[in-house]
């Protein structure tokens, strides 16, 4: 049985995750188009009227409105509540797993970035640098600090974080790099690799080391 304290923490984390998931829906929609995630307010894609706060409560508003805009009746995608629920459930699981550990907020940020990255990658087949590079830099700064607050010496925590980043990204880089080299030897081309009128990347170019046909560098 889950202790009451853990259950309460998970419930709070779930509610917080629902709110974060609602914001992630904005990120997923606007970031690929280069739009601000702050302004303007969320609008109905059908009638373009701003969505009132009481119509923007995660999951609940979707159910009350029966998946339709209050004003024009256009259908609201099921994706919105699913992203909110997924984020809430992940946050709750993290709370149950970690408890009130200094790493909990770090993992929540990482989870939110992964949810947004996965959905944008699904829609557009790329991951914005702000999410991938920004997330990596955030982790390399925040994880050692959180672990040092948990009792691990900062130098040890920093080395551990750097090793983790190196092993994780290094493995994916090897997969992408080897696949690219095999593809080049076999003469295989892809819609985006190499570009039209260009040859395969050579060792003297940055593309040779960072541009792969089967695995985007954002994944690395």
Describe this structure in words.
The longest helix has 33 residues, at 154-186. The protein has helices at 4-30, 60-64, 79-98, 103-124, 129-149, 154-186, 206-210. Helix 1 (4-30) runs parallel beside helix 4 (103-124). The relative contact order is 0.10. The mean pLDDT is 91. It has seven helices and no strands. With 220 residues, it is an all-alpha fold.
Keywords:
60% helix, 220 residues, mainly alpha, flat
What's this, in brief?
With 220 residues, this protein is an all-alpha fold. Helices cover 60% and strands 0% of the residues.
List the helices and strands and how they pair.
Blueprint: H1 4-30, H2 60-64, H3 79-98, H4 103-124, H5 129-149, H6 154-186, H7 206-210
- Based on DSSP secondary structure assignment, what is the total number of beta strands? 0
Strand content: under 5%
End-to-end CA span: 39 Å
Enumerate how many helices there are, as a single number. Answer: 7
Bin the helical content.
55-70%
Give the low-confidence spans. none
Secondary-structure element sequence?
Answer: HHHHHHH
Radius of gyration, CA atoms, in whole angstroms: 21 Å
Mean pLDDT: 91
Shape: flat
**Estimated structural class:** mainly alpha
Summarize the main sheet.
Answer: none
């Amino acid at each position: 049985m889950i202790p009451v304290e853990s259950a309460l923490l998970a419930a709070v984390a779930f509610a917080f995750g629902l709110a974060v998931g609602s914001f992630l829906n904005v990120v997923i929609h606007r970031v690929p188009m280069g739009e601000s995630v702050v302004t303007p307010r969320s609008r109905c894609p059908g009638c373009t009227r701003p969505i009132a706060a009481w119509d923007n409560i995660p999951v609940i508003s979707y159910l009350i409105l029966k998946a339709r805009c209050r004003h024009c009746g256009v259908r609201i995608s099921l994706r919105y509540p699913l992203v909110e629920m997924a984020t809430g459930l992940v946050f709750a699981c993290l709370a149950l797993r970690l408890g009130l550990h200094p790493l909990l907020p770090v993992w929540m940020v990482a989870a939110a970035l992964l949810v947004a990255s996965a959905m944008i990658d699904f829609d557009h087949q790329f991951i914005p640098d702000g999410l991938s590079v920004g997330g990596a830099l955030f982790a390399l700064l925040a994880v050692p600090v959180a672990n040092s607050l948990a009792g691990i010496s900062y130098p040890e925590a920093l080395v551990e974080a750097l090793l983790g980043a190196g092993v994780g990204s290094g493995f994916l880089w090897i997969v992408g790099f080897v696949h690219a080299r095999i593809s080049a030897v076999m003469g295989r081309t892809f819609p985006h690799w190499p570009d039209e009128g260009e040859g395969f990347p050579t060792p003297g170019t940055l593309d040779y080391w960072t541009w792969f046909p089967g695995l985007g560098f954002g994944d690395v």
